[in-house]
């Protein structure tokens, strides 16, 4: 059938997960929720993800901002995210964890 299937989960397109399986074994549940949320929120071909505290808390089911802060702290410690200087909502994404770009453009840059 040519009808489009509708799912509850947003599609994450163009994301290559290199070190993700190993990382999933090490991260606590709180950090995993934020990581999955970040993977769904990142824009195509972007190296930065915007994580608004309130939106993330609702999406991840956190009752307090403490859970959000702890999850972000762990993702930073594991080099998954890096806080963008001067911002509390912007984070650089480690392309070795998930590459959100164009492989042809990356190869030509090397």
Keyword list:
single chain, 110 residues, alpha+beta, three-stranded antiparallel beta sheet, two-stranded antiparallel sheet, disordered N terminus
In short:
The chain is of the alpha+beta class.
Describe this structure in words.
This protein is α+β, with helices and mostly antiparallel strands and 110 residues long. 44% of the residues lie in helices and 15% in strands. It has five helices and five strands. A hairpin with a 6-residue loop joins β3 (81-83) and β4 (90-93). The longest helix has 13 residues, at 29-41. Mean pLDDT is 78; it is low at 1-17.
Architecture blueprint of SSEs:
Elements lengths: L14 E3 L2 H7 L2 H13 L6 E3 L2 H8 L4 H13 L3 E3 L6 E4 L4 E3 L2 H7 L1
Helix pairs in contact: 2-4
Spatial gap, N to C terminus: 42 Å
Strands, total number:
5
Main beta sheet: 3 strands, antiparallel
In the predicted model, the low-confidence regions spanning at least 5 consecutive residues are 1-17
Strand fraction: 5-15%
Helix content: 40-55%
The helix count comes to 5
Class per helix and strand makeup = alpha+beta
- Principal-axis shape: globular
Instruction: Identify the strand order in the major beta sheet.
Output: 2-4-3
Rounded to the nearest angstrom, the radius of gyration is 15 Å
> SSE order in H/E notation?
EHHEHHEEEH
Mean pLDDT: 78
